[in-house]
Amino acid sequence: MSEIVEEIGQTVLTVIGDVLGCSPQDLREQPVLAAHDWDSITSLEALAQLESGFGVKLQLRDFHAARTADEMAALIAKALNR
Amino acid sequence: MTELIDALRTAVSTGHAPAADIRLALAGTDDPALLRKAGRALAPLTDPAGELRPVRVSVVAGCTVGPYEALLRARLVGAGALPKITAAPYGAFELTLATGGFDAASDLIACVLDESWFLPPELDFAEPQSAADHLEDRLRQLRELVTAALSTTNAMLVLHTVPLPGHVRDTMVSLRARTALTRLWYRLNTGLLELAEEFDQVQVVDLVGLLGDAGVRARDERLHAYADLPYTDGALLLLADGVRRVAQARLGLSRKVLAIDLDNTLWGGVLGEVGAEGVALGGLYPGKSYQRLQRTVRALRDQGVILVLSSKNDPEPVEQALSDHPEVLLRPEVFSASMVNWDSKAGNLRRAADTLGLSAQSMVFMDDSAFERGEVAAQLPEVALVDASGEPAQLVTSLVRGGWFDVMELTGTDRRRPELYRARGLRKDFSGGFGSTEEYLSALDLKVVIELATPFGVARAAQLAARTNQFNLTGVRFDEVSTRAMLADPTRLVAVVSVADRFGDEGIVGAAWVERSADTWHVLNLVLSCRVLGRGVEFAVAGWLARQAERAGATRLTGAFVPSPKNSVAAGFWEKAGFEALGDGLFAFAPGRDPDPTPSWIPADDGPADQATTHELPAGG
Question: Can you tell me the ipTM of this complex?
């Protein structure tokens, strides 16, 4: 389970890093998304890329409740039933 | 597809346009998530080499548009344009249109509206008919806004039909009431579409039809609730694609030639293996699907698309099958060039382009073989490819869905184009047996008519301005609206040039836009189709302009040359016509004093001043 979440986490870091214009390493060092340029526009861009990339639909309130990339990965793993 | 994004980022970071094959890959992508990424990556794109056609777009929306700008940018770059997109402030739809608060130099004003702009704030679900007046009123207001906006710009304003959300319809429990509201909504969308018929500068994308056809959801309720986003990325992409098709037609980026394979494309099976009687064509499936493709190809030809037959076969059986098979709809004479042999298809396409006097960039190639498409892609990356493998029932959709051949409006020349290019191919064969150019031109029975443009020639002149890249002296692309305005302006003149010869009538192949004062006439631009280059027609135009200027009392005729990556063929034209170089790309001629540049084989025979003038080559001339 944790391995799968970790694998999803790698992809999540890449996707969010791409949207925010920072590297996955930056996000590992500072995992709180709000500490980056995580505003309404970038968050919706990330939502579109994550939903398209993983083929899932997320509940918007759960998506906004995810504070870190790890929490986002866990949310996606749950949506994927993993 | 991260390779595509990487390739786009590399192009942006190295400061040049993405290569033709990358642009075509972008054009062939339908993934909204990828395209919004591509659009963001392309925002800083520059094109110092001038490979792309600049286009300025103003987005004016009555709602939040989310990734629309990025999607539109990706689509426009895919079509070969270099977009500069500006977005009007959120919530200022009416103000922006009413006061001209958009980029006045825009080529396109792309509007985005949702149902909330039209519906009454409190819809009476029991009595939807009560909304009729409100809907009419909103449509009238929109018409007034369009009128106001167009009074300040030459841009093309692009509207779209608007879907009625299912929850509005389904809140009505009365089936009769629901039908009534649906009817009112269809009437509203009809009114929107009618604006395109009323205004030359308006186009309407049928978003409702596109959504239904593509099976794309119009709305993501989460994003509508959270960000007031009325449309999904998929819906916005369909709209962006509709706007791209308008831009492509307006900028002259559409294709002119369809090169198409025979075996397993225009009919099922391989002629060389099963014979003409054995190919699948007509009757039941799959033959009916191949015949449907032939019918579609014939319809494209009837609208001016030039057909090239591209088949690896022996020519005789192909000729016989096309002539004799009772179900064939594309007889041999519909093809402007026939490339039936065992040579490489890329080489054949190159030869066809040369014969027809067109670039590979104007071609679409449809073939079922991945090998053939791959070879063409490798050698002629600017040729657009259509995959004809797989399901025969999908062939028609595969061919037409890209809108490769869209034009703003069909002209008479468009419809005759395939015949003109067929004549051009014959003319090329004929040219082999003459000792000198003059001898050849004499035998052609060349006839050149230069005359003032009439309202009937305006569309064709504007089309030439948009499409002509090689013999285009200044690159100024006068559109239909500005050209029409010049006809009524005594300080302007628009002339059109028609050419005919023994092989056929080329129709209007050139146009000149001139600014005239009492002393000086200045050529704002002169364009000539590459079909007629090499016959001295451009010098006859210079001579005609000089004589007309002299008759009007002007003592000076000036012109300019602005180099572009594609117009080197026209470099040196003014000097060769006897104009004196003044520097900064300006040239001057003294009508009546400097020698008339009209070639000897096109004798000047002007009518009264400002009247149609015919230069006819005398027999044996």
Answer: 0.83
